[in-house]
Specification:
heterohexamer, A mainly alpha (about 140), B mainly alpha (about 90), C mainly alpha (about 170), D mainly alpha (about 80), E mainly alpha (about 270), F mainly alpha (about 130), B: mainly alpha, about 0% strand, elongated, C: about 170 residues, mainly alpha, Alpha-Beta Plaits, 3-stranded antiparallel sheet, 8 helices
Chain lengths: ~140, ~90, ~170, ~80, ~270, ~130
């Protein structure tokens, strides 16, 4: 069992999750287009969710195949349940993420409708232009 | 010879070929001069990934993970349809 | 009368939903069969009118037999031949492809028949249905290895077998 | 035992693919391309969830991220215009 | 230009800081060598016929569904309510548009796509219902089944058209009613045991699944010949309806044609 | 006896999976090699029928033959078969849908082409 390889691969996965989080945060903050912001936000949410599941993963032991946390024996003896505990991964992060994904979707739907309304009012979804338009409006009202 | 080790070895040896195919598909998905090309590459990638997921389920001794493949196939079809509708119609709900 | 016909139209989709349910579940315990029956009735009632236009055709055993025969022949003959041709020609040192869009007039007219022929043509490597004209019954097929540009010969090359079986199954 | 190396290698590979897809999606001027790159990233994440033994998450995530986000985004793009200026 | 450089530097610093924190063990050893105690408890009791664990069991072999709807069921009920709220919030922006029915002639995609989609929708629905009904035995459950079943109306919406769906009876008001009914059903299923216990004069909990030592009532542990997970089955079916109806109504509203929406929005602005 | 049946099932399944891998590699190479979008459609066909449908059936046979997977192997086999059938129909329909849409929207170049009867019938301009 090559533990060094496992550590390196695991570190690569964690690092790429960080890179994804960072890059999508950058896009959500810096890109002016609302649609691009929404895309970046979905990627951000997914990366965080992946990271949570990754924390719930467990180390492989030699000769044991990890299993999803589902008991496949419908008449379990105590021996079966003990083996299940040896093999199964942590179900709690998965349950948390399950609802988090649906919440993310709801938020995205809401943002999409808001962006659409913004487009209908301003004729654009570029936030730089929208800011300029609003400044112009405010200046006109002040004068 | 044991059936379990035979099947495991077979799947393990088939993996590099799948990886090579996936890498080429991803190359086309990234390179694709037009958007439809990229859609085609993602499609082909996902259909093959569905087959690969079933083999991985056998490798992991986890037969209950099969619904993943079916869901992937269904939704990638949906991606196809959206793109077709985008190119063909004036509105998505038309 | 009308309601009776509507009810019969839902039978075939319900049977299909039940079969898919049981095959997908992979077990035939009492629980699976009961819930499967309930689900099949619900799905059939909701989708029946969408799928089936004529209940008599949908419940005919003879047509199903033709469909099974057709499936076997299709996979063992047409698919193998088309794959071999495609791989031989496109992976060779020089790709001798000669793409064109040809007219393929077909005899099937029902929606299911046209669909079956088109999907069979599309899923055979080398030919993809690009468009169709329903009134004239013409498929426009993108053909990678054009052998002919004449309509009737293209029909013989590309679609004849599928069309004959589709007529037997759906018309 | 080869399985652990395979799993970890696949995880790392799909994570790297998702990084590439994310970066491309963020920098693409054509929003439609950005949507497809985000779909590619979703497929990579789907493979990761499969490797992390989370079939329930795969079921939800594939539906949401490959099927519903692209529809929302394509609806938006169809209405607001394809190119990010 | 300066802004981009500043963002790039911040990005790199952010990633390096997180990586250093992780490398120094901020998350503990990764991957964790053994399960956490809470997970051990959950996995040990999720389907356990032995007496010592019976007080905590959910009687469902599927640990994730058991966690979602039993061990932290209250959280999930509120989460469903949040999803409902987000959809209502999105619909509120369209309150006028959503009442009108599209008059335009439906075009859709080609006949081939229509017929094959119509056939496959039956299979999709069967698969989705199977996922919900076996949510306590195999991977699946309310959210998963709902999102699989939502393929059907979404694909129909795209392949046929919005007006086709509306003619077929998938209307805005109906879907919102179904969604609300499913949410109410989830609430009632959560309260059912407590209400029944109150009526019978014994102790009972909200969101109680299996009988507890001090609360003798509960949902039946078996359905026919398989473990039912008690309330999990009810929750799964209701959540499937809720999620599918929610997705459908969102897409019905989002795909309103621009012409119709413009009329309403501009009309609002000018006060007529 | 049953072990012989298992071996036969696994053997047939493995043969199908090997065909699938071969088609898969061929499809991915073709996807890179062929010159334009309409030619690549055919590569997608090879990938979706030869590269996904056939190995899915093969995987179903392997799963049915593997006793060590326990009683849930029938769940896996049935699921793989359903996936294969759905994949077959949906891949064909999706390929056709996107081909038609791209042809109509002129979103990808059609050349090189020998003859275009569709443009002739539509009376459209030469592309």
């Amino acid at each position: 069992m090559d533990t060094e390889f496992v550590r390196v691969a695991y570190m690569i996965v964690v690092l790429s999750m960080y890179v994804n989080i960072g890059v999508s945060l950058y896009a959500a903050l810096a890109k002016p287009n609302l649609v691009k912001k929404i895309i970046a936000l979905t990627i951000l949410g997914d990366s965080v969710n992946t990271f949570i599941i990754l924390v719930g993963y467990r180390f492989w032991r030699p000769g044991v195949f990890l299993q999803p946390p589902v008991l496949t024996n419908l008449r379990p003896t105590s021996e079966v349940i003990r083996q299940f505990l040896e093999k199964a991964v942590d179900p709690i992060p998965q349950a948390l993420v399950l609802t988090a994904i649906v919440i993310n979707l709801a938020v995205t739907v809401f943002l999409a409708t808001v962006a659409l309304h913004m487009y209908r009012h301003f004729g654009t979804v570029n936030m730089d232009v929208v800011g300029r338009l609003k400044r112009y409006e405010v200046r006109k009202e002040m004068a | 010879m044991n059936l379990a080790t035979w099947v495991t070895d077979f799947i393990v040896f088939s993996m590099p070929f799948y990886f090579a195919a996936f890498a080429l598909y991803i190359a086309r998905a990234i390179k694709g001069p037009t958007v439809p090309d990229m859609v085609l590459a993602v499609d082909a990638l996902s259909y093959d990934l569905a087959a690969f997921l079933v083999l991985l389920g056998i490798l992991f001794r986890a037969p209950i993970m099969i619904p993943c493949a079916i869901v992937l196939v269904l939704w990638v079809y949906a991606l196809d349809i959206y793109m077709a509708k985008y190119f063909e119609a004036g509105e998505i709900g038309e | 009368m009308r309601s009776g016909r509507r009810w019969l139209r839902c039978v075939a989709p319900a049977i299909m939903a039940f079969v898919v349910y049981i095959v997908y579940t992979g077990a035939a315990r009492l629980y699976d069969i009961t819930t499967g029956a309930i689900a099949a009735v619900a799905v059939g009632a909701l989708m029946g009118t969408l799928v089936v236009a004529d209940w008599r055709k949908s419940l005919s055993i003879r047509r199903l037999g033709w469909l099974a025969l057709y499936t076997l022949k299709y996979f063992f003959v047409h698919e193998v031949r088309a794959h071999a041709e495609m791989i031989r020609k496109c992976l060779g040192p020089k790709m001798d492809i000669s793409p064109s869009i040809v007219r393929v007039p077909i005899r099937s007219r029902t929606g299911f028949g046209v669909t079956m022929v088109s999907i069979a043509i599309t899923n055979t490597p080398g030919t993809v249905v690009v468009d169709l004209d329903e009134e004239k019954g013409v498929l426009y097929v993108h053909w990678l290895f054009t052998k002919t540009l004449v309509d009737s010969e293209a029909y013989r090359e590309v679609a004849e077998d599928f069309d004959r079986y589709a007529q037997r199954v759906f018309e | 035992m080869m399985a652990v190396d395979i799993v970890m290698g696949l995880l790392a590979a799909s994570a790297l693919i998702s990084v590439i897809a994310t970066v491309l999606a963020v920098q693409a001027r054509d929003l439609l391309k950005a949507v497809i790159f985000s779909a590619l990233q979703s497929v990579a994440y789907t493979l990761m969830y499969f490797m992390l033994m989370a079939p329930d998450i795969v079921l939800v995530y594939a539906a949401v991220a490959v099927g519903i986000y692209p529809l929302i985004l394509i609806l938006l793009i169809k209405k607001v215009g394809r190119y990010e200026v | 230009m300066l802004r981009d450089v500043a963002f790039a530097v911040t990005l790199v610093v952010f990633i390096v800081l997180l990586a250093v924190a992780t490398g120094l063990g901020g998350l503990g050893p990764l991957p964790p060598p053994r399960l956490r105690p809470l997970a051990v408890n959950v996995l040990n009791t999720t389907y356990n016929p032995y007496y010592a664990a019976r007080n905590f069991t959910a009687d469902a072999p599927e640990a994730v569904t058991a966690v979602v709807w039993d061990y932290r069921g209250l959280d999930t009920v509120f989460e469903t309510a949040v999803f409902y709220g987000a959809i209502i919030g999105a619909l509120a922006l369209y309150r006028e548009v959503s009442k009108r029915v599209e008059e335009s002639r439906p075009r859709g995609l080609s006949t081939i796509v229509k017929v094959s989609t119509a056939v496959m929708v039956v299979a999709i629905a069967a698969v989705g219902v199977s996922t919900a009904m076996h949510g306590q035995l195999t991977p699946g459950g309310g959210f998963q089944a709902g999102s699989i079943i939502a393929v059907a109306p979404v694909v129909l919406l795209v392949v046929f058209s919005k007006s086709f769906l509306e003619k077929a009876g998938v209307r805005y008001a109906k879907m919102v009613a179904l969604r609300s009914a499913a949410l109410v059903g989830i609430g009632l299923a959560a309260l059912a045991v407590a209400i029944a216990a109150g009526a019978m004069g014994c102790w009972g909990y909200v969101l109680q699944n299996q009988p507890k030592p001090d609360a003798p009532l509960g949902y039946p542990p078996r359905a026919l010949d398989v473990p039912s997970g008690g309330s999990l089955m009810v929750f799964n079916v209701l959540e499937m309806l809720a999620v599918a109806a929610g997705f459908t109504v969102v897409f019905l509203v989002l795909s309103t044609s621009e012409k119709l929406a413009k009329e309403e929005v501009v009309g609002e602005e000018h006060g007529y | 006896m049953s072990s012989l049946v298992s071996w036969i099932l696994v053997g047939v399944g493995q043969a199908l999976v090997i065909i699938g891998i071969f088609c898969d590699l061929a499809a991915s190479i073709m996807m890179l090699r062929l010159p334009n979008f309409f030619a690549r459609l055919h590569a997608l066909t090879v990938g979706s029928v030869g590269g996904a449908f056939i190995p899915l059936i093969g995987a179903a046979l392997i799963a049915a033959g593997c006793d060590f997977l326990g009683p849930y192997r029938w769940f896996m086999a049935g699921g793989a078969v359903v996936t294969a059938i759905i994949e077959y129909v949906l891949a064909g329909a999706g390929t056709h849908a996107i081909a038609r849409a791209v042809y109509r929207a002129k979103a990808a170049p059609l050349k090189p082409i020998v003859a275009d009867k569709l443009a002739e019938d539509r009376g459209g301009e030469e592309r």
